[in-house]
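Here is one chain, start to finish.
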Amino acid sequence: MIAGGEQWHVEFKGESKAALNDADLVDAVVCLANNREDATSSFVLIGVEDDGRITGARRRHGVRTEANLLIALIRNRTVPSVEVRVSTMETADGEVIVVEVPRTDAIVSTPGGRTLRRVMRTHGPSFEAMTAIEIGREPFRVGQRDYSAEPLTDATVGDLDSFEIARLRRTIEAAPGHADHRLLELGDEELLKALNLVVTVGGRSVPTVAGMLVIGREDALRRALPTHEVFVQIFGSSTELVLNRRLAGPLVAIAEEIQSVFAGRNIEQEFFVRGYRLAIPDYAADAFREALHNALLHRDYTENAAVHIQWSAETLTIISPGGFLPGITLDNLIVHEPKPRNRTLADVFQRIGLVERSGRGIDRIYEGQLRYGRPIPNFGRSDHEAVRLLLHGGAASRELTAFVYGEIAVGRSLGVPELLIVDHLRRVRHAVVAELAHLIQRSDGEARNVLERMVIWDVLEARGQRRGRFYLLSGRVHGVLGDAPGYIRSRGFARIQQGAMIMELVEQQGRIRRAEAMDLCHLTVEEARSVLRHLVESGKLRPVGERRGTYYVKAE
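Its structure:
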C-alpha cells in the first residue's frame, strides 16, 4: 500500500514533525468510513509521510500502542460507531500503525457533528466537510433510497407531455413478449400511476422524478431536473468533430434518437464463412442498446454532470455520472446481482419492454463484443465519479463469429463464461482452473463445471488431473478458426512442460517410474505412458527393466 502512494482508500499520517492527535485520527476515520465507492476496506497508515517515507509512529500508550485502546477511542468518537481493526507493523524505518476502516452504509460523523468525505485534489486525495445538501443526497447517491421515486412537489401533471404518453403506448405495442401488455388496457391516468410516474401528495397528483424524466416536457425537465443532459459526439478519422448534439428531453425519446443516429452510422459487412452468411456490424446493436439504457437509467441524477456518448474511428465510449454502487467492482461486475440506482426508472423501462426484465443487460454488452472476436468491454477507467465503458469496434474475427453461430445452430448457446474462456484460450493457448475461474468471476468449483461441460461439447480438451489439470481449445475449434498449427503448438507446449518436469526429477533422484510421472504432472496412465515414450524416442531417457518393474534413467 505504501508503494502505491496515497489513494482513494489509503491515507498516510506522518508524525515526523508533530504527533497525530486523536481528533485528526478520528477525522481520517470518519472520512474513509464515508468512502462507500469501494467495496473493500480503507486504511489509515500512521507513521508514513505524504511522500511515502516511513518515519515511524509514536507509541500511543506508554512504551507501546495498545490496539484495543485505539479501537475503543475510535468507537467512542464516531456516530454511528465505526468498528475498526488496528494492527502494528515493524519495519526497518520504524513502526507503522495500520487502522483498517470498514465500508459503512450509514453516514458517519464525529459526536460534534463533523461529517467529512474524500475528495481528489490536484496534489492527491484530501478531506472536506460535507454540506447539508450533500448529506441529504447521499442515500440517493449510493442507492439506499430511490431518487427516481421522489415526488416533485413543485411540478404539476401539466408539466407532462401527452405526446410522450402516446410514445409509451407505442413502445409497449412494439415489444411483444417483453413489455407488460396489460398496461395498454389502462387509461392514461391509471397508466401513469401504475408505472409510478405520478403519485398523490397532499390530495393532488404530482410527477415523480421518473415521471418527469420519462414523459416530462423539455422546458419542465430543464427547470425541475437541470442535471439531466446527454451529449452525443462523433469524431471523424482525426479529431474532427462530425456531430456534437446536446439532448435534454424525455428519456424514451432520447434513447430513440440516439439509436437512430447509431443505426445510421453502424455499417454492416456481409461475409460467407464455412457455409454461413454473416452480417458483422461495426458494433453489436443489442450491446450498444443495453449500454445506452444502462447509462440513462443508472446514472446519478443528483450529480451536476451529463451522460456522454463519444464515437471515434474504432472505439465507442459511454460515460455515466456516478460510480458503481457499493458492492459492485470490476472483479464481480459480470456476476453481481442487478442493483439499479434508480429502481422506479429501471422498472418503467423493463415494463415497457426497453430493457430485459432479468436485469442482465451486462451479459448482452459482453456477448456483443465477444461473439465477433473483439476485445471485452473495458470498464477500467471507471471510478467514484462515473462509470466509463469503452467498446472496441474495428476488425472482427469472421471464423470465430461462424463458430459461435454454428454452436447456436446445434443447440449450444455460448454464454458470457464460455465466450470469455474461448476468447482467453485463443490468446494464451492453455490455462488451469484457477486462472479461468478468476476470468469468469466464479469459484473454482463453478468454473470446473463450465469447463467440463465445454469438454463434453468438444469445445475444449483437458489434460492432466487434479490441481495440474489444464484446458485448451479442441482440435475441432482450432480447425473452425483456421488455426490447426495453433492446436499442435498448444499440445506440444504442454508436452514440453511435462517433459521438462520429468527430466528435472530424473536429474535429482536418478530415475523415475511411470507412477511418479503421473503424480508429478497429474497425468492419466495413458498420458504418462505417451510422455515417457516421447522422451525415450527423443533420446533423453532409456527404460530399465520390464513390465511393472520398469523405470527410466537419463540416456547417455
